[in-house]
Amino acid sequence: MKLFCIPGFGVDDKIFGNLSLNADLRFINWLDPLPKETLTEYAKRMASNIDEDEPVILGISFGGMIAQEIAKFRPVKQIILVSSIKSRRELTCQLRLAGRLRLNKLFPVKKIQQSEKFYEIANKRLGAVTKEEKEFANGYRKSAKLNYVNWSFDKILNWKNEGWPENIIHIHGDKDQIFPIGHIKPTHVIDKGTHMMVWNRADEISKIINEVLAKL
Q: b/e per residue, 100-122, with b = 16+ CB within 10 A?
């Protein structure tokens, strides 16, 4: 079975590297956003790499949001979310307010990217604890393109999705600080799992995904 994998915000297919899945993994990495491109338009460009009529899609964080956008304009057999959200209501009140007020437009992203203090705070929220995990996360932050970062922040904070398909499996950590579980109703909870759990709790997540795939 082909499993189309969309990584989280700012990372690429390496984030799936610790998973052990009974599937033929097909990675859909991020594209550079076009000027004034909507989320729907962007999702259609991402979906052009999917060569199955009814694909199974695994989305991490922002990748899970894109997976749901794809399901709005083409049939999808199964969506598997990890450390993601299913609707705007699952964002924290603070993030929803930041989106409405366009506060993300006020922050100098390039300077933040170069701040070691920011890396400290971001890694703590992400759940990157070991030296290897921190280096993994910091490497992506330093190389992220400014256009992509600005566009993605805006689309995440202002996501208008209110409902979701029934064919969603949602795996979430109860210690996720990016998308706190108090706002979310997942189908599977990883005890003490953080936003980085696809990397550092890969065995548990692999087991759940493989059980889902076996039933398809």
A: eeeebeeeeeeeeeeeeeebeeb
How would residue 115 be classed by pLDDT, with cut points 50, 70 and 90? low
Residues, the chain: 216
Map out the domains of the chain as residue ranges.
Answer: 2-214
Per the CB < 8 A criterion, the answer to whether 140 and 132 are in contact is: no
Distance CA 101, CA 30 (A): 26
CATH architecture of 2-214: 3-Layer(aba) Sandwich (3.40)
Q: Give pTM, 2 decimals.
A: 0.92
Q: What is the distance between the alpha carbons of residues 199 and 14, in angstroms, rounded to a whole number?
A: 9
CA 119 to chain centre: 19
User: Please, which pLDDT band fits residue 85 given cuts at 50, 70 and 90?
Assistant: very high
